[in-house]
Amino acid sequence: MAYPAEEMKAEIEKLKKKRNALNHKYKTKMEKYTDTQYKLVFEVRDHSAGESIVKMAEEENCDVIITGSRGLGAVRRTILGSVSDYVLHHAKIPVLVCHK
Asked: Where in this chain does the record put each UspA domain (predicted)?
């Protein structure tokens, strides 16, 4: 089934606005930390979220990965998988998981 081009364009624009809002939100939050080096990256890749985070951290030579945890229950996490769990077990650098 083909996805209508106009709907796809509208969805892409909506996602770009969301990305820009998130970028602005976190840049604003980080402005007060002038002694901290950081890089915000919003990118779409052809991998799972966890795999993409680990690969990007390696490519960018990151010192640490900080990720969140949505607090899924054990059953949902087992069925759906957990991005933070994947990152924690596959990253070669320290990972800090911030719980909800």
From this structure: 6-99
3-state class (DSSP) for residue 35: coil
Domain range for 5 is 1-42
Residues 57 and 25 in one domain: no
Same domain, 19 and 59: no
**57 and 25 in one domain?**
no
pTM, 2 dp: 0.68
Contacts for 88-96 with beta carbons within 8 Å, 24 or more apart?
A: 90/50, 90/51, 90/54, 91/53, 91/54, 91/57, 91/65, 92/58, 93/57, 93/62, 93/63, 93/64, 93/65, 94/63, 94/64, 94/65, 95/64, 95/65, 95/66, 95/67, 96/64, 96/65, 96/66, 96/67
d(CA 98, CA 66): 7
